């Protein structure tokens, strides 16, 4: 949250992006934390509802990555650095890359995908600041 406020104050889109990404990955977030300016100085307004809706949507997409029976988004990138989108697939336990056949680190995969989605859904907001 801190990095979002600072990013807005100093017009630093990369801080805002990092803040949103962290919110999406944090498993213990509560609606109260997102929606209320609890114990914050008056200058720090809570996130607006559109922002919260996007963040919740992205969180739900990221949660799907941890579910064996759900299909993987087709724009995931290999965490071992294979060039371009190679396509990832599940065996019964892990996710692998079609190109290098290496097992994927799911935490890294989730972070990368969150960053992709945050960049996409908050593009307008972030571009204005550049
Ligand atoms: Zn690969």
Can you describe this structure?
Strands 1-2 form a two-stranded antiparallel ribbon. It is built from six helices and two strands. The chain is mainly α and 130 residues long. The chain has one domain (2-68, 106-129). It starts with a helix and ends with a helix. It is globular. The chain has helices spanning 2-9, 13-25, 31-35, 49-64, 106-121, 123-129; strands spanning 88-90, 95-97. Helix content is 50%, strand content 5%. The structure holds zinc ion. Zinc ion is lined by residues 78, 80, 82, 86, 97, 99-100, 102.
Relative helix content? 40-55%
Strand order of the largest sheet: 1-2
Alpha carbon gyration radius: 16 Å
Q: What composes the largest sheet?
A: 2 strands, antiparallel
Distance between the termini: 20 Å
Shape verdict: globular
The hetero molecules present are:
zinc ion
Low-confidence stretches: none
The SSE string, one letter per element, is HHHHEEHH
Tell me the number of structural domains: 1
- Looking at the chains present, what oligomeric state does this protein adopt? single chain
Count of alpha/pi helices: 6
Number of strands: 2
Which percent range describes the beta-strand content?
under 5%
What is this entry, summarized?
The protein is 50% helix and 5% strand. It has 130 residues and is mostly helical. The model has no long low-confidence stretch (mean pLDDT 86).
């Amino acid at each position: 949250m801190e990095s979002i406020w600072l990013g807005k104050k100093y017009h630093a889109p990369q801080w805002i992006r990092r803040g949103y990404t962290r919110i999406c990955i944090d498993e213990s977030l509560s609606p109260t934390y997102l929606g209320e300016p609890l114990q914050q100085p008056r200058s720090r307004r809570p996130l607006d509802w559109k922002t919260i809706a996007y963040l919740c949507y992205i969180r739900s997409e990221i949660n799907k990555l941890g579910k064996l029976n759900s299909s993987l988004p087709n724009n995931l990138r290999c965490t071992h650095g294979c060039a371009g989108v190679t396509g990832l697939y599940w065996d019964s336990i892990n996710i692998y890359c079609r190109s290098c056949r290496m097992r994927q680190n799911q935490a890294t995969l989730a972070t990368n995908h969150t960053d992709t989605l945050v960049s996409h859904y908050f593009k307008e907001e972030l571009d204005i600041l550049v």
